[in-house]
Queue: 2 jobs
Job 1
Amino acid sequence: MKFLLSRLASALIVVMGVSALVFLFLYMVPGDPVEVMLGESAQPADREALRRALGLDQPLLTQMGHYYYNLLHLDLGNSLYSQRPISEMLLERMPATVELALASLLVAVLIAFPMGVLAAVRKDTPWDQGAMGLSLVGISVPNFLMGPILILVFSLWLGWFPVSGRDGLISLILPAITLGTAMSSILSRMVRATVLETLNEDYIRTARAKGLSERLVIWRHALRNALLPVITLLGLQLGVLLGGAVITEVVFSWPGLGSLTIESIQRRDYPVVQACVLLISLAYVLVNTLTDLVYGWLDPRVRLEGGR
Amino acid sequence: MIRSVIRYGWPAAIMLLWALFAVGGGWLGLDPNHIELSKILLAPGSDAWLGYDDLGRPLWDRLVAGAQTSFLVAVLVVLISTIVGTAIGSISAYLGGWWDHVIVRIIDIFLAFPGILLAIALAGLLGPGINNVIIALGVVGWVGFARLARAQVLTIKHREHVQAAQALGTPPLMIIWRHIIPLIMAPLIVEATFAVAGAVISEAGLSFLGLGVQPPESSWGSMIRDGARYMLVAPHMVLVPGAALMLVVLAVNLLGDRLRDRLDVRTRPRE
């Protein structure tokens, strides 16, 4: 219980801080944000109207109070570009991002687990070196290079998948592979490390000393225990996926929160940019906190250390 | 220099080439904005070297110009991040108390933005241009160093030689600089190496999104972005800058791996 409370309290502080930072975004726009948003040819009356609508004519602390008040009421204001409520736009784009994140996580797990386990069990053999070399290459190929290459080979040359957009399951495959392979490169190294660490534990030596077959030792004793830390990793990675998908979404014109962020930056629709960044970061914090809690629930040792 | 290239093999050679072209590219007499209308989208070959882009500009010249961009951004961003992050992290850990509490919270808040999202938002708000890319990546980059330096300093600030210096009345900043920083250099160097790879990818990513350097300036990221539109007819427009980017990042990462093994550094200090 103490663990739960302390974890929630620190998450709350982070959430407040993140929103404050996002609030200050408008002050980072060089010059007058209203002028930047409306362009130089705007009428003075329109400028004043926008200034009032954004609350920029109020003292900073009043603005901040309003901002938190509106956030708590889930009122994010309207888009300057389409005049639509921002919350509505976010809800519209969210399913695509979540769908892509989950699919990519699946791809990452399917690649990373066999690779990481293989590398750990056959440590220092060509298998290990091959898997780790591959993962290093994967880390070094950014999504905006992987994406176009996949499009070239599988969409343009082979014609198996659509080039872009979100139209059924088939259009999900290439973006999910792009994100998933990038993730699996990091994940497989982590899986390898955790399995290696587990293989050094006393109970593994005991199991081996009992005369169990190596296969049984690995599957029954090592992997089961190695899975626990990997859950944390998965949670962290899911959070990264929710946010890190920005570039991949743009590459594939995937209609999620990431591409909404970029579109809004291009339209100088800063309130929408703020809302997107806020939502993605909050989702990240939420997933991380949940992961921590689940981990603490599964492993009492963490709970005890954290509560102290 | 030569000896380390031999010891670290091709990763060091690639990094050396990258640095040489970035620093000395100006003397090669290249013209990345020269347009040859007759050579538009020409593929690499004996008369075209690395080929030409959609406007008829030579890819080799633009590649070298892009190396300058990525090198400049990476060096400055990593330098700023390392200095600012190490200073904040080590002072915070050394002094402890409420100051340390506040810094830890601030670090947590910055880490709550996944991936390069914060850099994207900052670069988008500040407007395009290489200076703003450096600012955006620097604002995001110091956090990792601050966390690392803080964790490292916490483990050694109670060592005897530090206590001896304290007993002699050495001022705190002097203790940190003389007696603590030298001991935490190894992990910082490893982190800085990986940060170079991160900065190169981030700069290219921002430029790919149109938030980095602006045309006609050249960046590997914007070259990939321009090329993606001509994938079918001129794949070299993506593959040439893509290969350069991948090789440099791979080389830096490999070097980081080797440095880590050599300096015997744990990636994540136990907290």
Note: The radius of gyration of chain A is 24 Å.
Job 2
Amino acid sequence: MGTRALRPRQGAIAGLALALALGCSAPPEGRVEPAEAPGAAATAAPVVRFVDVTAESGIDQVLPSGTDSTYPMPAVMGGGLAVFDADGDGDLDLYVIAPVPGGNRFYLQQEGGAFTDATAAAGLEGDGMGCAVGDLDNDGDLDLYLTRVGPDRLFLNDGDGVFADRTEAWKAAVPGWSSSAALLDYDRDGYLDVYIARYVAFDPARVCSQHGGRRDFCGPTEFEGLSDVLLHNLGGTGFEDVSAAAGITAVEDAGLGVVAADFDHDGEVDVYVANDADPNNLWIHQGDGRFLDDGVLQGSAFNRWGNSEAGMGIAVGDADFDLDLDLFVTHLITETNTYYRNLMLPGFEDATIDTELGAASLDLTGFGAAFFDADNDGDLDLAVANGAVKRRPSALAAPDGATVWSDYVEPNLLLLNEDGRFVDASARSPWTELGLSRALVPADFDGDGDLDLVIADLDGTPRLLRNLTIHPGAGNTNAPTSNWLQIRTFDPRLRREAMGARITVQTPDGARLVHALPPGSYLSAGPATAHLGLGAAEAVQGFEVVWPDGLTERFPGAAADQIVELIRGEGQPK
Amino acid sequence: MTARPLTVLLFAAATVAPSGAQPIPAPRLDGAEAAVRQRLASLQADLRANTGNGDAWGRYGMALEAHTFTDEAIAAYRQAHELSPRTFRWPYLLAALVDERSAADSLPLYRAALALDPDYAPARVRLAEALERTGQFDAANREYEQTRRLDPANAHAHAGLGRLALNAGDADAAVRHLLRARDLAPENRSFAVTLAQAYARAGDRERGQQIAAAARSLGRINYRDDPIRSGVHDLALDARSYLRRANAHRVHGALDLAERELRAGIDVDASRPELHFGLAEVLAVSGDPVGSLDAARRAYELHPQLEGAAPFLARALFQTGDLGAALAMAEEALRLDAGDVSMMLLVALVSAERGDVVRTVEILDHAYQARPQDPRTREGLIRLLTNVGEAMVGSGLSDAAAEQFEKALDLAEEAESLEAAGLRRRLAQVRR
């Protein structure tokens, strides 16, 4: 058979949140919208609903920004997240990353769904900007690469969620300001390599201002950009910096977001980097360890207008069902976020206008972003975390006197896909809440089959938003009548998930493309489990997997509403 | 976190104009520079005395916009347009600001402005761009064509037609339009990269690559020929704006205007090292090495770590003949950035001049190990290694000289330099 069905898990937090949504427990003031009237839920389209369950979750520590009267630039750029099963108990844990010494927090999800602070016990104290998560030594557990304003750090997992700092032994102390990182096996040796986007040569003495000379945070154009770094994994024992040989030191741009995937389906993994005010890079792997930046000619370096924008976060997914990976990049206020539609042969086109994705973002500064199927109806929606990096032209909050952030806070965005157009669905809580949001990760925290969200807020508690979408025909209950599938890939030779595997799923509505990839976003890492909304379909007819080493296999179909594991070597070779 | 307020706090700090008139929007000025505060206060006083004067509101709006107080500027322009409905510039400036928030909302304002002056091409092309942003491609096409008729040399109109053609899948037409735009505004990076993409779509990747490579040297900011909008930005009085304007003048080669802006900025705030550094760079190009040295020295004193300040000062000292100070500053620059090969060469040059052979050879070896890729720096290193080698030959140190020639040859061969053949011959002679 080659597929393994895993049981979905429903934790106590799911029950708690459900109770809140049904009105069985008094919701925290100002947090939860009233439940829909019974008639409203019985309409044809799902009523997408997220509820902030942070207060009940045990996630209670503020993510410190470290800002002060000198307006230090890292304070306004940080706020990373990692969502992964650190202790191998089957549920998702949470690592919160702050740009302040001692600011990082690690939360273990317990049986029942509550989170407890296990930072010290796990050995994950410290500070940072972002991270990448994967099994770097092929021992069957998930390790953590931490990016920082100073030298990066590497933590190897002992399998039980306790981490050892192996930075020195592995030569992982990449200098300078690193931002996001992505894992990829570019040389197909079975070990995950690390691509690190680096930002700018920050000088804390530089004073910046705007609005008539009022002091403010500096922007990237005040400093020289830094070239990115590619660390080659030496058989699970250490890293070798191969940046120069790979050709990626040819540019020194202000990198913030990064995703690694095979964008042109030539069998080689490529890298896309969102640069802040610099053209984005599309590093096409030449198959021999060298990468060439083809972003300009392939139409993904600049927007429709030929302008380089303030690239922050990246969402990646097949948003138009044409079986390739499209890109969505978040930007600064007065710039729209940009949707790059993959056309394969000629490259990408800026389809922001066609998809109506521009207007909602023009007055906001976007950071974390993810394509995800919020309502399991079979298409990809978008969530975007926002928060200004300089004082907004118009403040959205009254001054609070305690911090400077009232001039910077913004609401986040939920954009629902309606036949290829994205409709702003952010008019209700929790999307109306103001914050300084950065990393954003979709993940099924409660194992109920739909994707929840966690968002990092500077000088706020990370927000856990439980997906309580009400589906047609379900009356006023949360029984998921829109079906779903989660797909894990496993390579027994490597004893780990097959990060980067490309999976084509035959559904009753046609072929759908998903990847065993973290969701991209900004300064963040998430599960490499693929999620597919199926709408009313109760089964899929089959899977075709292109494994990272190039082997293509077919697997038989499966019923909906389960976690399927596809194991390399157990399918039918194509 | 707080909840989003029901109303925007636009007029929260508005000052009240006399008896029943519109309140005067007053931005928060805590921390703003004194010159800015004084200017805005003066304009507010004018306005209180002339609340019914549209132009007074407009002038105040321009000063607000110049200092990026966008909300307050929009409010002032609206009032100016209402009180002076026959004046073109107020609805036009209002439209351009509203466009930054919502292209759709800007459309009626652009049209109101163009009804007053249909021939102002920069406004018509902005209307076309706003139509393009809102997906009204046919209407945008008509406005770009109309702009082209009004002003055949309007590069933005040609570029707009090129973009529309490219996105409609007509790569050949896109190349035609974008070539014209690029020829009219060769300094515009946006036009160049879109042209490169159009060539690639049309099947000529090689030409596209050439244009994309050339575009790397172009500046990030594209300037528009729009006297009305430029006039707004000229009003900014904060030090940063002087620097921005000076950089714009430098891009266009107007060094005298750049110098004037930088000196005015220093008058506003003499504590900003980047203004002094900018002035040093401008004066160096203008042929005033002494003035350049003074400005560079001031920039370094204010912020020794300012990027480029120490190497610039070292070079300025060298050029004015103060070798001792130049050597000390170059060593300091190397302390700040140990990989700066140009500073290694300067140290080598001065050390050689002063007869310090040990330091000369040592620093040249560091420079050689750094394998500089910049052609000019590499060429300078090859020359220095060669000169030192020749000096060693003259002193009878053949083995040491051969070592210098070997390094020079290695670099020349790597760069496929024509000098390699000569160095190879010379090395053979020295070895004999």
Note: Chain B touches chain A through 63 residues (CB under 8 Å).
